[in-house]
């Protein structure tokens, strides 16, 4: 789940070094990242939380920007990483829904901006290093949270409570935005159509739905950040905080 070129953790892959998540371009630049219900409170202050169709499922995602480019993210939020990114470059197998038994894999991506020597995946005697164990623990936690998050999304979809959300704008004559997103229909918040979802999933569903609705207003922050970044300047592409941490 997530990642660009997932490979098995075996043979030569186990001898590689890993670096801080911000050392990898996908962590810094990817606009849409899978998230879980338990981090909605932390993310909703900056990013819209919506759903995206992934095969037969609706996947909860955080929208960090309107383009896959860190420079179009709100500068103050660039250091706010979804949990999935804190585990990077380790990822779930993208071919199956993640759970506690899903194999952990390595995203085969070069660290283009390392700030230190990094850490080995395994020690000299073949055991997992401390850095690897720490990130595996994040994936273990995510596997549990993702089960509940997927179940809430499936319940909303079964009741036909989603509607498309076209997050698209024109900036300096350039179309930008994210397609393929879904949000909970507004009238569902008025007539109590998702009461059965709340009854079944309790506080996690209630918190997620409330924060989801509030988070949609953060689209204005993304638009403002993209406008600043794409504003024509004599030097070309503008960036008011190019060296901020991801």
Topology, element by element:
Elements: E1 6-8, E2 17-18, H1 25-29, E3 32-34, H2 40-43, E4 49-54, E5 57-63, H3 83-86, E6 90-92, E7 104-107, E8 119-120, H4 130-158, E9 162-171, E10 174-184, H5 188-191, H6 195-215, H7 219-230
Antiparallel strand pairs: 1-7, 2-8, 3-5, 4-5, 4-10, 6-7, 9-10
Form type: globular
Overall mean pLDDT stands at 91
What number of domains? 1
Any idea what the radius of gyration is? 19 Å
Strand content: 15-25%
As a percent range, the share of helical residues equals 25-40%
What is the N-to-C order of secondary-structure elements (H for helix, E for strand)? EEHEHEEHEEEHEEHHH
Taking the alpha carbons of the first and last residues, their distance comes to 21 Å
- Provide the spatial order of strands within the biggest beta sheet: 3-5-4-10-9
Total count of strands:
10
The largest sheet, given as strand count, sense and whether it forms a barrel, is:
5 strands, antiparallel
Count of helix runs: 7
Q: pLDDT below 50 for ≥5 consecutive residues: which ranges?
A: 242-246
Structural classification: alpha+beta
Oligomer: single chain
């Amino acid at each position: 789940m997530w990642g660009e070129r997932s490979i098995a953790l075996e043979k030569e892959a186990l001898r590689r070094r890993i670096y801080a998540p911000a050392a990898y371009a996908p962590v810094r630049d990817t606009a849409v990242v899978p998230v879980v219900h338990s981090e909605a409170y932390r993310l909703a202050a900056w990013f819209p939380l919506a759903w995206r169709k992934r095969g037969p499922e609706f996947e909860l995602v955080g929208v960090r920007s309107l383009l896959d480019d860190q420079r179009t993210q709100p500068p103050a939020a660039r250091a706010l990483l979804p949990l999935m990114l804190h585990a990077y470059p380790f990822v779930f197998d993208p071919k199956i829904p993640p759970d506690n038994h899903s194999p952990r894999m390595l995203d085969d991506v070069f660290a283009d901006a390392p700030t230190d020597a990094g850490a080995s995946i395994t020690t000299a005697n073949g055991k997992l290093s401390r850095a690897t164990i720490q990130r595996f623990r994040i994936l273990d936690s995510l596997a549990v949270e993702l089960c509940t998050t997927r179940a809430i999304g499936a319940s909303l979809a079964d009741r036909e409570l989603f509607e498309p959300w076209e997050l698209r704008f024109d900036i300096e004559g350039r179309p930008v935005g994210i397609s393929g997103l879904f949000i909970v229909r507004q009238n569902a918040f008025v007539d109590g159509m998702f009461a059965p979802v709340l009854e079944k999933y309790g506080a996690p569903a209630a918190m997620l739905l409330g924060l989801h609705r509030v988070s949609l207003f953060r689209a204005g922050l993304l638009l403002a950040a993209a406008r600043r970044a794409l504003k024509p300047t004599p030097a070309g592409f503008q960036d008011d905080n190019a060296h901020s941490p991801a």
